[in-house]
């Protein structure tokens, strides 16, 4: 660290070099008294050092809420969201997935989580005007093989799903080229994937969506009940790494989680009453340690309606599914219905 | 003048040399003069001059302090403290049940900690308080500004806009019902843009940035003297990973707590922190407890724990020096933090007695 470029007293700079302090982090990690002893300076000098160093780290970092509200720029605005490709689902989420933060999609098996993720991988490639982020996606598979046939079906049918987008724009996008599929079957390879390949792709601007399908699979088998502290550490480390990548590159991270049914609902600190499913308490896997890392949690579930139900539902054969918002800082708990069709996931009004 | 050499703000090595040479009070140092000093302890003339300057400043400062009466150490009676506390403002939360168990609202000059599982409403309350601190005095608020330090990225400005709009609407209703001149005047400046422009937002991405930001806060608060609320949303998040050495974490958290206490007192602001919950595995069962360990529990003056009971949100006052432990239910609506049912009419007259500065609010039409 080049201390000469800081606006400090030459005596302080000399003391810093002599005490072999190499970074701002080291300075802030020491208490005032420790710094005095280490650098042999008076408390006034140390206070001045701390203020100068903090100023340099936090220069120009203040914004008012009004500035945040009025900022409509694509690259920095909070209003920027990644659309799901369907206006009903986007309305539920007030625009779509927030661009900074980890969003979780939890639910029982075959409820439609992979379908929604695949749809997002296509939506992210559209221009900003149509709710996309003009970039590709990384899909990290941890259990099943990547559903490439289904992806191809979805690509072929994009013009049908996205009737709001002019056909020439859809034709110009090479959907398959911008989806990078990674495999990570255990924790070590997952760690490698995040720290090496993901950072590289993000730094080059080639992707602006990360899908992890699924995060639960990495942790289910490897940790017994006695190793819960170690599991929690891994979860926190991964959560922090993903969070910092998301913040640095303004990239939404979509984690797919499985859910477990709890027999004893009294043990739950927070349970979700899924609409339409009577008597069951499904809760996402991985516990509160993982929930603490999330910005937003969505749950999907399958419900089968009786044949002669009134309203729009009667048009649709097969089962309907629900997408519900469990928690989000900007959304109330709410849900909507959707179906999975050939062209993709579509909400029902 | 009789100050002992050991208490002067000089470099520790210099102090050690002075004590070894036999100097005991500041007066002796000043009498010796720079030449004599440099000969006695073997330092250069410049260093001796500087040291004497520091000593002179300190003694000057001491004299001013004892003469003025106010400053670092002042004496006052418990009665004076009581009067001061009673006239202290509270930041209301718009949930009268919560305000009641807190004794009026979130208190200025104290640190309040809000703990809870994800999704229970901690960030919502923080956003509500950042708006409510700005309510003009004629409506029962403290007319202050807010600093919001976000470590998790959960501050969504659209939500703050909804909360602020509902608050302005509420004040408009009161003004219409009461038809008083100062209400109308206050409402001219209490608008959505004004509220948003007085919430100062800082985003800290790791604990080093957070520490640096807290070092800079006193200066910021001196420049923006109307700030009455400092929110740190997510004090746990940056401290719960990345720490191989937990004793370092405890030390940093303690230092942070001390700085926040000083800030709260010196600038008459409320400090609100949000904390996560973690599982503590006991002998027969596991319970949820606030994160960051036992020693962190001493940092906050008031501790609130938010939790669920089936699908009802509950708030428990877990720690408070003056209020008893109790639990109430609350709701989060599109307007923000609210009661479960509309408050009873008797509440407003009770409150007028508790805090004479506030005027009673009429019954709100729901």
Count helical runs of chain B: 12
Report the top-level CATH class of the largest domain in chain B: Alpha Beta
CATH fold node name of the largest domain in chain A: Rossmann fold
Overall spatial form of chain A? globular
Determine the CATH superfamily of the largest domain in chain B: P-loop containing nucleotide triphosphate hydrolases
Number of strands of chain A: 13
Tell me the greatest interface: A-B, 59 and 67 residues
Silhouette of chain B: globular
Output the strand order for the largest sheet of chain B: 5-4-6-7-3-10-11-12-13
Structural class call of chain A reads alpha/beta
Strand fraction of chain A equals 15-25%
Kindly describe this structure.
Chain B: GO terms for molecular function: ATP binding; ATP-dependent DNA damage sensor activity; crossover junction DNA endonuclease activity; four-way junction DNA binding. Chain B: One of its GO terms (biological process) is meiotic DNA recombinase assembly. Chain B: Residues 339-366 are annotated as: Disordered. Chain B: This is DNA repair protein RAD51 homolog 3. Chain B: It comes from Certhia brachydactyla (short-toed tree-creeper). The complex is a heterodimer of chains A (349) and B (366). Chain A has helices at 10-18, 24-29, 32-39, 43-57, 65-70, 87-92, 113-123, 148-156, 158-161, 167-172, 187-203, 215-220, 228-249, 287-291, and strands at 62-64, 81-82, 97-98, 101-107, 136-141, 179-183, 207-213, 252-261, 282-284, 296-303, 320-327, 334-341, 344-348. Chain A is α/β, with parallel strands linked by helices and 349 residues long. Chain A folds into two domains: 10-58; 72-261 and 280-303 and 316-347, 3-Layer(aba) Sandwich (Rossmann fold), CATH 3.40.50. In chain A, the strands form two sheets. In chain A, strands 4, 5, 6, 7, 8, 9, 10, 11, 12 and 13 form a ten-stranded mixed β-sheet that branches. Chain A has a two-stranded antiparallel ribbon with strand order 2-3. The longest helix of chain A has 22 residues, at 228-249. The radius of gyration of chain A is 24 Å and the shape is globular. Chain A starts with 9 loop residues before the first helix and ends with a strand. The model of chain A is unreliable at 265-279 (pLDDT under 50). By secondary structure, chain B is of the alpha/beta class. Chain B has two domains: 5-64, DNA polymerase, domain 1 (Orthogonal Bundle); 88-339, P-loop containing nucleotide triphosphate hydrolases (Rossmann fold). Chain B is 44% helix and 19% strand. Chain B contains twelve helices and 13 strands. Chain B has helices at 12-21, 26-41, 45-68, 78-86, 96-102, 122-132, 157-178, 181-189, 192-197, 207-223, 246-266, 345-354; strands at residues 90-91, 106-107, 111-116, 145-150, 199-203, 227-233, 270-275, 277-281, 286-290, 302-309, 312-319, 327-333, 336-339. In chain B, the strands form three sheets. A nine-stranded mixed β-sheet of chain B has the order 5-4-6-7-3-10-11-12-13, sandwiched between helices. Chain B has a two-stranded antiparallel ribbon with strand order 1-2. In chain B, helix 2 (26-41) packs antiparallel against helix 3 and helix 6 (122-132) packs across helix 7. Chain B is globular. Classes of the chains: A alpha/beta (349), B alpha/beta (366). Chains A and B meet through helix 2, helix 4, strand 1, helix 5 and helix 13 of A and helix 6, helix 7, helix 9, strand 5 and helix 10 of B.
